[in-house]
Amino acid sequence: MSLATWKRRLRPRPLIQQLEIRDLIARALAFQERLRQAKSELPPPDPGWYPWDSFGALTLLDQLLTGRHRFLHPLIGDLPVLDLGCGDGDLAFLFESLGCRVCAIDNPPTNYNRMAGVEALKIALDSSVRIEPLDLDGPFQLPLRQSGLALCLGILYHLKNPYSVLETLAAHANYCLLSTAITRFAPDQRTEVNHLAVAFLAGRDGLRGDETNYWIFSETGLRTLVDRSGWEVCDWLVVGDEASVLWNTQRDERVFCLLRSRAFLPPPVTQLVRGWHVLENGAWRWTARRFSLAVAPGAQRLSLKVTVPPNLELPLTLTARAAGAVIATHTITRPGDFECAQLVPPGAEVLVEFELDRALCPDATDARERAIIVRGIELG
Predict the structure, then answer these.
(1) Statement to judge: residues 246 and 294 lie in one domain
(2) What is the reported pLDDT for 264?
């Protein structure tokens, strides 16, 4: 197989890091039709499918998100998406269709159809979304140790202890997309409270007669809550809803915001040091026979996703060293794609040096010394 053929095989496919928020909205509209079709072919769960539009909030993200936050990859990275209060899982399945790993959680007793809808759609869509029943109003442990992005849309007023949930979430998620209702006035509709850090606790009849609603915050109260629970505001948008009423005649307002956690511990990162050629096609790069990278503290396992070209003499030996000591040796006997993993010694930043026993020499078509192609680097 020629190198040109290998390059065609390695040409990058559309990835989530290339998606801008308008692309997400367009994909959501198309995926919504796929969901409607799937639901039409299934017997509806009792008492029916989740009746509220899960995709409606996405159209507002074009107004909300700014700068680098308009692209999915800076928000998600290589970590999973966590969907809190997933309903029938519409958004969870959407993000999975974009190439994300997703965990969807909800509480069966308060879910509209006791999570029968999301379970049925998972089977119908042949989905790998992880579905977890979880009561956020009791003692709980989130099912993911780390998440790139948490979706917390329209559930804050359903939580008995929103402070605890947001504080716990800040330790597990790097970013959070949150939406919730807010109020400018006290229930008497005369006392303005928007400038005060307050929240109103609903009585047993809840808000609008829904007993699962507990809290309604002023805008200042919500900002104070997200700050005290470990988040900083990246983007903030207030929108009105003329069709919805909060207190008697007061029109509903909602906040949509993107939050970044101050408590989230970022995963360890790598820094390329020596022996790396320029990135090609935005997805892969050649190495020289000797190459190295620095691993930030906290990593335990370093994995290289490599491709061995067909015109390199085999067998090929790749040796990894840290502080002069051999930490792994990999012997490759055929061309193709491989994973070369090694454990990184604990401590401060670690320089990992790799050496191959042979490489392609510079020639008339390429003046570089070329050994292997590295398609990705993963830390764990």
Answers:
(1) no
(2) 87
Q: What distance in Å separates the CA atoms of residue 214 and residue 210, rounded to the nearest whole number?
A: 9
Answer with the residue of higher pLDDT: 268 or 140.
140
Contacts of 209 (CB under 8 A, 6+ apart): none
- Ramachandran assignment for 347, one of left (phi > 0), alpha (psi -120 to 50 degrees), beta (any other): left
In a domain, residue 281? The reply is yes
| Residue 252 shares a structural domain with residue 277 | no
Task: Label residue 18 by pLDDT band (50, 70, 90).
Answer: low
Is a pLDDT exceeding 60 seen at residue 323?
A: yes
State pLDDT tens for residues 355-379: 999 999 999 989 999 999 998 888 8
Nearest Cα residue to 270 out of 317, 307, 303, 306: 303
The span from the CA of 154 to the CA of 198, in Å, is 19
Q: How many domains does the chain have?
A: 2
Do 246 and 360 lie in a common domain? no
Residue keyed to tokens 């400018």? 184
Query: 340 forms bridges with which residues in the sheet?
Result: 304
pLDDT tens by residue, 335-347: 999 999 999 988 7
Looking at the structure, do residues 142 and 20 belong to the same domain, yes or no?
yes
Q: What is the pLDDT of residues 139-178, one digit of tens each?
A: 999 999 899 999 999 999 999 999 999 999 999 999 999 9
Residue 2 lies in a domain: no
- Evaluated on CA atoms 370, 372, 378, 379, the torsion sign reads negative
Which of 229, 261, 293 is at the close of a domain?
A: 261
Domain boundaries, position 63: 12-261
Query: CA-to-CA distance for 39 and 56, rounded, in angstroms?
Result: 18
- The values of phi and psi at residue 104, to 5°, are -110, 130
